[in-house]
Amino acid sequence: MSKKRGLSLEEKRDKMLEVFYDSQSFFQLKDLEKLGPKKGVISQSVKDVVQSLVDDDLVFKDKIGTSVYFWSLPSRAGNQLRQVRAKLESDYAISKKRESELEGKLESSKEGREDSNERQAALIELNTVEKKHKELQEEINKYADNDPAVYEAMKDATKVAHESVNRWTDNIFALQKWCSKKFPEARDKLEELYKEVGISEDFDYVE
């Protein structure tokens, strides 16, 4: 014997709506969990099914005192479904209009682009010119190091670096002089310190 197939979610929703429509009354969740199994919806799934109906505005709930009540009337659900249908029909009409406009633009864009021998020849010529341009650009890049503008920029950068190095040399000499005057008794220690930080005896300005 084959196992009985369980209800799908949509089938459960329909069965729970029947509970509301048959009685047109108000229920607490515990009441619905007792009535659900009579329609084939197990009590453990009643809460989730009812909540899905609430989310879709097919079932309504409200808190009265400390209790929460659920209800749904066929007329109200029918109005809700009619509103949904009207919205879908409106969206469909807008989509069809947009589709028609796009098709019109597509046809217009094709004008003057019909395939022909002249167009094919023009495309071949365009590809040839683009390829040649790319080759020339690559050739120019090879000689970038000899570009006068690049040379001038490098010369300016070298000058700035040269001035910066000698300015720091000035600062180091000034610091050495200050240390020698401030700590004459520690001259030997200062010379060791200079060596530690890389200041050799031939340290001087860059020509």
Automatic annotation (TrEMBL):
Main location: nucleus
Protein name from the UniProt record: Meiotic nuclear division protein 1 homolog
InterPro entries in the cross-refs: LZ3wCH, Mnd1, Mnd1_HTH
Cell compartment(s), UniProt: Nucleus
GO biological process, one term: reciprocal meiotic recombination
PANTHER family for this protein: MEIOTIC NUCLEAR DIVISION PROTEIN 1 HOMOLOG
Known role: Required for proper homologous chromosome pairing and efficient cross-over and intragenic recombination during meiosis.
Single GO MF descriptor: double-stranded DNA binding
Gene name in the database record: LOC112282372
Leucine zipper with capping helix domain location: 150-206
Domain Mnd1 HTH: 16-74
Coiled-coil ranges per UniProt: 119-146
